[in-house]
Amino acid sequence: MSRGDFTAAAATAAACRRQWPAAAAGWLLGSFATLFAQRREESLALVEEYLALNPKNFECLLQRTECLIALGRREDALAAAAAAAEVASDPAALDAVGETLVNAGEHGLARDVYDRAVAIAPADAAILGKRAALQVFLGDFRAAAADYDRVLGISPTDPHALKGRAELETQTADNNSIAAMQAALAKLPADSRDAATLHFALAKSYEDLGDHAANWRHLATANRLERRRVAYNRDQDAATIERIIAGFQQIEGIPAEPIGESPIFIVGLPRTGTTLTDRILSSHSEVCSGGEPPALPDAITAAVDRISPPGSLDWLGFASALANLDGASIAADYLLRMKARRGDRPRFTDKQPANFFYCGLIFRAFPNARIVHVTRHPLAACYAIYKARFRERAYAFSYDLDELGAFYIAYRRLMAHWHAVLPGRILDLAYEDIVTALEPTTRRLLDYAGLPFEAACLEFHLNPSSTGTASAVQVRRPLYESSLQEWRHYEQQLAPLAGRLRAAGIRVD
Description:
Serine Threonine Protein Phosphatase 5, Tetratricopeptide repeat; 5-stranded parallel sheet; 59% helix
């Protein structure tokens, strides 16, 4: 499996089952291998065959949940998760169920599972911290603060709890955790990941306090530490975009829609207002938020694997293969993957920002799709990205200003290409327009999506649905304009980046 040879892995697992039919491992590993190989029904059949004789095997119940999610059988998947939680006998097992539910976008159910885990192990700081993060996703900031405080009561220097607590509210001179963070930092290796976490937290705190020099000092340190941990090749990203452009020099004529679906894809760079746009749209009575799923890239990867041996292509080869893919098969696979997320409303959103790589394929798969490209002032966008700490392996270009600038230029080149070959098909929506002219901008957005205006879209901050992005706190508040000009406090530090963008023909004034 580690080499991507799922056929051999499945055959080896089958040999294990023949030799040791009573052992769960052969059935479980076979299910893993076949699920990775997109043989979903076969994967489910393997764990169900074992569960028929061993109905309370926790690992197989959890794998059954994963199989059912992959098959789009949401209700059955939730029942399987409940069965796995029922037989879970310790916090680690409940944590595994909780993680599965989080990955499926079921934050409310995941919190219920973590409630059980906390009841069993009330002094487990890791479990409390995970529940705190879920409270944030669900908008229960008071409960999140209480959980983070419990973590800090157990471990006063816990970096993630200190950072999480600081992000819940604006830090003030009379109410901040700077001293605690500095004390925790002094006890850590200077180049550790936990040290980077605290530097990001200190930067946020000093920005709240208006100490811009201290903010930048900690921000630069945090990004330098994080950059050492990630593998990133700027030339490969630029070459990938050039391969995509070369493969989509023209987009074939749009045929009649065979599936009858018109999903709304929200694309752009992170921290530019994509979550805000999703909350506006999903406040409409006809639209469900599909969250930030991997469904489209996964469906595209599966389509590439059908024409090339799995794992045989590097990233550039993968990019070159995109032009030869069949849209109908991508659409069918994508809808299956989204079935558990899309809800029961007529329309749904997909807010995976990096789907901007695939605009040509989106319209090939869904001729009636809508693509909303959220934009932001170049330096405001780059500063917002630079001050964010993203999940593992996401946006590796973001931790060095020079690399960030190179990626930004390549991204703008790709979006200009999509506009050229798909004239009038993609809506550019400026974050600044949302913030300063919410109603007319919302009306323009809804008109493009083919939706009637509803006043509820203007009160997006009252939307009760969960959100698992870095903007989880901000999007539950009414709009504020202070973020529009934050980057101007750092014009001197951003000057080399600004010069590079100008040289590429991008206006930054």
